[in-house]
Amino acid sequence: MQLVLSALAFFVLAVGLWWVARRLRDVFVCCRLGQVSRLAALLDRRPDQIGALDAAGETPLHEAARYGQVAAVDLLLDRGCAVDATGRDGSTPLHYAAAWGELAVVEHLLARGAKTDLPQENGITPIMAAAARDHQPVVDRLRSTGARPLALVSPIEIADDDPLMEEARSRARRTLDLLVELFHEHPRDTLVKVPLTTDGGRREVIWCDLLALEDATVHARIRTPPVTQEAPLPAELHCPLDDLEDWSVELPDGSVRGAFTVAVMVRRYRERHGACPPLEAQLARLADA
After folding, report:
1. What's the whole-model pTM score?
2. CA atoms within 13 A on the CB side of 237
3. 162-212 pLDDT, tens per residue?
4. How far apart are CA 72 and CA 37, in angstroms?
5. Could you give the CA distance from residue 134 to residue 99 in angstroms, rounded to a whole number?
6. In this structure, are strands 217-222 and 256-258 parallel, antiparallel, or unpaired?
7. What tens-digit pLDDT sequence spans the chain (289 residues)?
8. Which residues are 193's β-sheet partners?
9. Rounded Cα gap, residues 133 and 124, in angstroms
10. From the DSSP assignment, how many helices (H) and strands (E) are in the chain?
11. Domain spanning 18-144: CATH superfamily
């Protein structure tokens, strides 16, 4: 009996060691653990593994970014892994680096041309993922590249005559005196949402950096390009103040004044899809919500 038990124990140990050894040759495990030499050797033998996908449809670069493995990130990019590869939910490597506060990885991805405002299916962009977990250095770095602090690419359609949206626009126009006051105090942190007719003849509303308010006219620089515009955009937009759709000012403490339509978008999303923690965190920053 003792002999049988010993043989069984040896078999279990052998199987376990084989499984561990096999897993250590897995490209995703190498990325997770930062085993760069082993990863390089694996890719030398199996170059096709650079495009391997896990159960979530994500690449080895996602795994390396999630675990802050800078050297693995660089190796994968050097070998041709797409910097903006997306998983089935729209997550990019930058989403994971931002969400986990991996500033060094964020820097390396940006240096390789990662796009900062790509949304997941739920509308979350990297800067929103970083803000939701209080990774302020990452938020600041993404903002320095032009990432939109109020980026909220909604996956739902909201009708123009939606009563909450109509009230939000009305509130924005009723509080223009407050906008003027805050703009003078925080000129670099003020955004306005204004209409634009594109070269395709469609009306879009876009967020812009406010440059000046003169003679009841908004002077602004486009922050979020229109979707249907093909021709080059003007350096500045000029539109009547009465056409203003919304405004927002980010204060030094991280809170945001205005952004009335943003609050509506979050609430409508919650009604249709349930609470989404990053969006709820964004809503919590809106002092006038």
Report:
1. 0.54
2. 29
3. 899 999 999 999 999 999 999 999 988 898 999 888 877 888 888 888 999
4. 9
5. 9
6. unpaired
7. 454 444 444 444 443 433 333 443 488 999 988 999 999 999 999 998 888 888 778 899 999 998 999 999 999 999 999 999 988 778 899 999 998 899 999 999 999 999 988 887 667 788 888 876 778 899 889 988 888 665 544 445 677 788 999 999 999 999 999 999 999 999 888 989 998 888 778 888 888 889 999 888 999 987 766 767 777 777 788 999 889 999 999 888 878 899 999 888 888 878 877 776 666 777 888 899 8
8. 207, 246
9. 13
10. 13, 6
11. Ankyrin repeat-containing domain (1.25.40.20)
The DSSP output letter for 286 is B
The tokens for 74 are 């660089």
Burial environment of residue 35 by CB neighbours within 10 A (0 to 12, 13 to 18, 19 or more): middle
Longest CA–CA separation in the chain, Å: 97
Q: Give yes or no for a contact between 276 and 269, defined as CB atoms under 8 angstroms apart.
A: yes
What CA–CA distance (Å, rounded) separates 118 from 124?
8
Domain spans, the chain = 18-144, 163-284
Type of residue numbered 4: V
Under a CB-based contact definition with an 8 Å cutoff, are residues 266 and 168 in contact?
no
User: DSSP letters along 117-157, please?
Assistant: ----TTS--HHHHHHHTT-HHHHHHHHHTT--TT----SS-
From CA 275, how far away is CA 268, in angstroms rounded? 10
Are 269 and 123 in contact, with CB atoms under 8 Å apart? yes
Helix axes 163-174, 176-185, angle to 10 degrees: 60
Structure token pair of residue 238: 């000029």
